[in-house]
């Protein structure tokens, strides 16, 4: 599910994602200011325009607080700038499997990031509802806290789209992943709208690999490739319970060749947007 990093050139297996101490601390700070203001969670939630379960998850350190939550909580609780300062120091690694964290750190500094996915919509492109549907579908059975943590971490990675200087993104996604209908019609409709919105960003290129494409360079499975600030290329490949960070120049070169071939095999960005609109209209 592309949330999981192994060591350099080696397969790394990891268990469940770990909780973040910084998230728990932030949650306690929010809780303290809320109680100081004499508000229950039920009273506080509508003031920050979030649901009571979401507020509870943030206070328990299970969910990464969205930026607008932090700003509204600051104003509602008159927190003297403390919540803003605490939010800037939150770890961006909560809910990420241990074997994915090395890649996640590299992503944060990348100047170019390319992703091909044939299993699920890439985590960077998922909506909350789609991420939740995927997380709940894959065994073993997870409790609500585990699901919240994994979904929150996946959504937090999407802050990469707002980074300055911007990252040059390229995504190649199989058409079948959209037509699968994960989560149901409403989830799929929201997902397509989200994909179209992302595809409209100046630094994002989204291509759909059509259902019928006999000549396909991606038969060996999903891949991610990035370019570092010093213009070094690295690759990442993920399996069922582990991931592999690839640094050998020859191996990375093969990945670059395959990705370049798939770019020529997939629909153009313009045709991909047209296909997405047709798929949405057919729902």
UniProtKB/TrEMBL annotation:
PROSITE patterns per UniProt: HTH_CROC1
Residues in HTH cro/C1-type domain copies: 30-83
Pfam families per UniProt: DUF5753, HTH_31
UniProt xrefs under SUPFAM superfamilies: lambda repressor-like DNA-binding domains
Name of the molecule in the record: Scr1 family TA system antitoxin-like transcriptional regulator
